[in-house]
Amino acid sequence: MTTNSDLRARQTAAVANGVSTRAIFAARAENAELWDVEGKRYLDFAAGIAVNNTGHRHPKVMAAVAEQAQAFTHTSFNVAPYEGYISLAERLNRLAPGDFEKKTLLITTGVEAVENAVKVARAYTGRSGIVAFTGAFHGRTMMGMALTGKVKPYKAGFGPFPAEVYHAPFPSDYHGVTEAESLAMLERLFQSSIDPKRVAAFIIEPVQGEGGFNPAPASFLQALRRIADEHGILLIADEIQAGMARTGKIFCFEHSGVAPDLITMAKGLAGGFPLSAVTGRAEVIDAAAAGGLGGTYAGNPLAVAAAHAVLDVIEEENLCARAVEIGDAITARLNALAARQGMEAIGNVRGMGAMVAFELVKDRGTKTPDAALTNAIVAEAEARGLIMITCGMHANVVRLLPPLTTPMEQVDEAMDIIEASIEAAITRVASGSAA
């Protein structure tokens, strides 16, 4: 029998060291459950990093892909277009917030969506500057890294990066940056570093993913919209992790009442198949000349068929409401745990819908990050059969991304594991025996 350790050794010998992984080698998966090659069962609260919002192998997604595979698997939309791409663009145009004409571009990965959003923003405005935010994650290409507001491990050693990218502080009351301070620093950026008349776009995650599941206040997004309009700047919403019903709305920006000019999406869009999109104002999307957008695999027919099925499932199974139900249950358990004696290491519980995180600190007063405890909790949970992943500027945040189709009894099971794992990890760290 092939074991995890066998595959780990082969991976070490054959796979690039820069591809960081865990030691769980998947053999099969179904909805919120995953089994490794040794037969061990896990509850998957990473969901492929917010990809499997409809769970692993949702029957409707698998059926749609199988049906498409019987027709054709690839033509390249640039060579022989097909209706599925067009109809998905029509659906996303209807779903995206904003009372204006929209168009959509389909590509393959999240960072491709970001790159293309920047391209069309620059083409439309004739400007080059892009303002992103501290703690942001927008991908691993050169432009994606330039926009990303976290150095290690994503940017270290890979520069120089594309020019004309600037960062403003992302507001986080818990981390000592108020909304007013963030807006003031944005204005200072305009005074010290770049004329707002040279800025093509703001790009922002409505809930930061890698940055630590920090939600942007609705009032901040509204202020950003006003500033953008004042200076002729476009607003790009990076919904790659927060979109597709994850926070209780199809798009997280809907919570704020703000309509961005461009939306990037990926991850949950196609239920595990590689697909991303940029949807936005028609005149902005159309600013790029014919041939300036696209790609060989962009809008792959199998992924497009999966995306249609995902959107059907979100609607038919009311996954927006399920995200709220699951998120409320997780948040209530975490808050109750944080309020218990001896659980002072849980410094903060936050998130939106089924995008919930808890931050680990050495002291609630100083909020000193505790990455060692965070890693110990994740390792303990893994040993007990629960997959979780970390995030945050100091790697001290545990993020929970269960499939939105997870049965509530499995949510309860996972929370029992989390509670036991936190207790065990705190005890080990306190005794000095943590790995």
UniProtKB/TrEMBL annotation:
Protein name: 4-aminobutyrate--2-oxoglutarate transaminase
Gene: gabT
Transmembrane spans: none
EC number from the UniProt entry: 2.6.1.19
Cited NCBIfam families: GABAtrnsam
Domain of life: Bacteria
Cofactor(s) for this UniProt protein: pyridoxal 5'-phosphate
Keyword field: Aminotransferase, Pyridoxal phosphate, Transferase
Transferase recorded as keyword: yes
Annotated family: Belongs to the class-III pyridoxal-phosphate-dependent aminotransferase family.
Signal sequence segment: none
Entries under PANTHER family matching the protein: AMINOTRANSFERASE CLASS III
Pfam families membership: Aminotran_3
GO molecular function, one term: 4-aminobutyrate:2-oxoglutarate transaminase activity
